[in-house]
Amino acid sequence: MDAVPARAHAYVAGVVLAALVCLRPLPQVHTPWWAVLLLAGLYAGSELVARSRFVGTCYPVLLAGAFLLPPPAAALVALPGALLSPVAQRPFALRRVWRAAQLTLAVWAAARVHWACGGRDAVVAPDFPYALVPAGAAVLAFCLVLTLLDGGILALADRVPAGRAWRGLFSGSLAPIAVHGLAGLMMAVLWRSPYGPVAALLVLLPMCVAWWAFAQYHRERAAHQATIRALVQAVDIKDGYTRGHSERVGQASMMIARELGMDDERVETLRFAGILHDVGKLGVPTRLLRKDGPLTPEERGVIELHPEYGHEMVRGIRFLGEARAAVLHHHERLDGSGYPYGLVGDRIPESARVVAVADAFDAMTSTRSYSRARPVAAAVEELQRCAGAQFDPRMVRALVRSLGRHGWRPAVTADGTPVVPAGVLPGGRGEGAWDSVGRGAS
């Protein structure tokens, strides 16, 4: 997002000002500056390596600084790495300043809580297991500050609804940050031991192994997503009248899943299910997909094979999970008159029931070779009329609620321009525009 709203600029400016206030006492702080420089350099190097390997932010060094140094000096450790690390999207300078200010405040808060709980003496002694108490409190403070700031920037810069901006941020980031906090505590204890800083650096070795494994997973997932994009593009090219349909069904499926309160991982899976639901049309003759008149029973039988074709094509993509069942069963009906297997009621997988409603809704609100687009209200009325016989009423109600909250912009699909529903951000959790540091921990 190149155009950042003025209110987001003001929010970032306020966070930067708060960070500067935290750093203001630095001239009066008595601290070993060589340690500050060493930790800052180590964090900057680790950050560059971590982000180049797609594994997020290296928190152990920051938290070790919070356990070892006075709060203003600990906060200073984050600045070089945050300002120098790569940024994927514009505006680059504003993103770097935001990340630096956010981490400065989070590390300052963690160090302040750690010192207030007597953590400095527990690390120097070292006093176990008591040392875990102030360290745990510091990790909670660190995670809480990141969560609060992340939610604010999502709401103001990405225009994520306030009720959803903070949802799942704290719970999703606490576990990985806690692991980083434990590594940071081990670094701090070894740093204060007779073995010194060199021994502390050894703690990062297992973290590097974890980063490598996570990077491998990221590359594998990126390869799968590239495969999905290629399959969808192939379907769009083959059936020009439904171009963009797959993406919109994915968005509508995501809206339904969110309205049902599904967790973020499952919402993403349902988005993939919607995107891939028609991939089996690659096995259907093009002349049938583009036929203007009514289909003969034989032609309809050929087209009705596309769910099985699609399932065969995606069943080897393991991370799709229940999305594969949605590809196979999205044309089943609750009354058992659907295809390919005539499943009844709850025997139809939940993912398929979600995609069935999303698919029908977009089909009705889009112009095809054989029908004109209906108004959204008319499509909703038809879904409600068929609820209980063809569609799961719970899925229909969820879509209606989401449409009332976010709206929908139907499109003529033949123009090839995918349209995103108003108020819904691509990419799962509204992470399209700002690099939220709190979710970056591997």
Low-confidence stretches: 411-433, 436-442
Sheet/helix structural class: mainly alpha
- Give the fraction of residues assigned to helices: 55-70%
Number of helices: 21
Strand content: under 5%
Main pleated-sheet profile:
none
Overall shape: it is: elongated
Q: H/E series, N to C? A: HHHHHHHHHHHHHHHHHHHHH
Radius of gyration: 26 Å
Average pLDDT, all residues: 83
Alpha-carbon distance between the two ends: 25 Å
Give the beta-strand count: 0
Can you describe what's shown?
With 442 residues, the chain is mainly alpha-helical. The chain contains 21 helices and no strands. Helix 2 (33-52) runs parallel beside helix 5 (78-84) and helix 3 (59-68) crosses helix 6 (92-116). The longest helix is centred in the middle third of the chain and has 35 residues, at 204-238. The chain is elongated.
Q: Which labels suit this protein?
A:
disordered C terminus; 442 residues; elongated; mainly alpha
List the helices and strands and how they pair.
Layout: H1 6-23, H2 33-52, H3 59-68, H4 71-76, H5 78-84, H6 92-116, H7 119-124, H8 132-157, H9 162-165, H10 169-192, H11 196-201, H12 204-238, H13 245-259, H14 264-276, H15 286-289, H16 297-303, H17 306-314, H18 323-329, H19 350-364, H20 376-386, H21 393-406
